[in-house]
Backbone:
């Protein structure tokens, strides 16, 4: 839904681009109204289909032969609810857009010691079969990006919207941690809320002897991440909001949709360029086919004529008497061949019609478009284990 928020922003810019000649501007529909309406639609849709999710969970519980208390919990959870939770770690990088979609939503920043996160990320493929990061440096970098984004959100929205929870507190004092979370979201505490913590889920199964050290990792990045991790453990969440941080967060979100619009425009121009190239090639091929059809027709007419029969006999006699003699039986045929030869000489690329397509797929194209496309999307986030938001 983070990327969805970016698309909503793009949609609004397009829908309000021409002032009163655009539907959104003409009707005085503000951007925040469009965001809130889209978010409300998503909220209603999820709540309406909650029962389908709970049915699947209950079926899964029966298949796994879980204890009765889990079945009872699933049944209770299936009752009508007005709140839902999404713990996608990537949302760390999209808090601004998500807050626009869901103005009444709250966020929980679950932050874990960076070294433990890196170890977990480097072993995630043991569970999922795919790697979250390429190497140790990538893991430290991703942790830094996500945690810095969450810390900025704490400064922008304050403790009423973003609640920081240390993973160490959740492990060492789960009752206190859960009580603080439920108090934050305005839900009553129950001892049964601790039951899910009795079993670890989504673990990367890190081997006890696993070492994450990689000599190729930039030590400055590791030092920065470890320093920030220790600082978070020792300092409390800020209680005052920062207007400067708010401006920075909004600017960052605007940059996201502006980059996306620029990329979309570049793709559209490139698509039009190659469409024009292929259309021209098609027209040239049609012209060539027409000329060749004339050749075939003329040749067929020539071969069926009496003149062709007579000429062949005469040519046979001449070939025996004058071996260097060349006979041309039909001037029209000669003219068509000459026209085709001139046209063919002016289109040397006909034999390589697939080259424009190959250039489109190659990063070494004339304007280096694909290289810039790769750079502009290099900041796309992957899933990590360091943060979760609700």
Residues:
């Amino acid at each position: 839904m983070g990327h969805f928020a970016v698309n909503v922003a793009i949609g609004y810019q397009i829908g309000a681009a021409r002032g009163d000649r655009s539907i959104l501007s003409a009707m005085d529909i503000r951007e925040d109204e469009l965001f809130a309406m889209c978010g409300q639609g998503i909220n209603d849709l999820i709540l309406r289909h909650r029962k389908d999710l709970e049915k699947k969970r209950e079926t899964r519980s029966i298949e796994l032969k879980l204890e009765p208390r889990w079945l009872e919990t699933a049944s209770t959870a299936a009752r009508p609810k007005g709140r839902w939770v999404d713990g996608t770690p990537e949302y760390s990088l999209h808090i601004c857009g998500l807050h626009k979609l869901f103005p009444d939503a709250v966020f929980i920043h679950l932050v874990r010691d960076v070294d433990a996160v890196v170890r977990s990320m480097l072993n995630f493929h043991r569970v999922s079969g795919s790697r979250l990061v390429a190497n140790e440096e990538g893991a430290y970098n991703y942790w830094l990006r996500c945690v810095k984004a969450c810390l900025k959100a704490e400064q922008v929205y304050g403790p009423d919207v973003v609640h920081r929870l240390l993973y160490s507190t959740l492990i060492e004092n789960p009752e206190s941690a859960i009580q603080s979370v439920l108090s934050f979201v305005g839900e009553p505490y129950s001892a049964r809320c601790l039951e899910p913590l009795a079993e670890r889920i989504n673990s990367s199964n890190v081997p006890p002897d696993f070492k994450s050290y990689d000599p190729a990792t930039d030590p400055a990045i590791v030092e920065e991440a470890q320093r920030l991790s220790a600082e978070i453990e020792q300092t409390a969440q800020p209680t005052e909001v920062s207007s400067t941080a708010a401006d920075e967060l909004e600017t960052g979100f605007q940059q996201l949709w502006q980059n996306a619009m620029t990329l979309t425009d570049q793709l559209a121009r490139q698509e039009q360029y190659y469409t024009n190239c292929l259309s021209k090639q098609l027209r040239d091929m049609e012209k060539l086919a027409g000329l060749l059809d004339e050749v075939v027709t003329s040749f067929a007419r020539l071969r069926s004529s009496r003149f062709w029969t007579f000429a062949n006999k005469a040519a046979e006699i001449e070939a025996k008497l004058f071996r260097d003699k060349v006979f041309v039986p039909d001037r029209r045929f000669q003219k068509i061949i000459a026209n085709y030869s001139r046209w063919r000489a002016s289109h040397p690329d006909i034999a390589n019609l697939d080259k424009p397509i190959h250039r489109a797929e190659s990063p070494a194209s004339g304007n280096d478009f694909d290289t810039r496309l790769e750079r502009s999307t290099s900041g796309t986030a992957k899933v990590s284990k360091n943060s979760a938001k609700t």
Summary: The domain at 85-241+380-390 is CATH 3.40.50.300 (Rossmann fold).
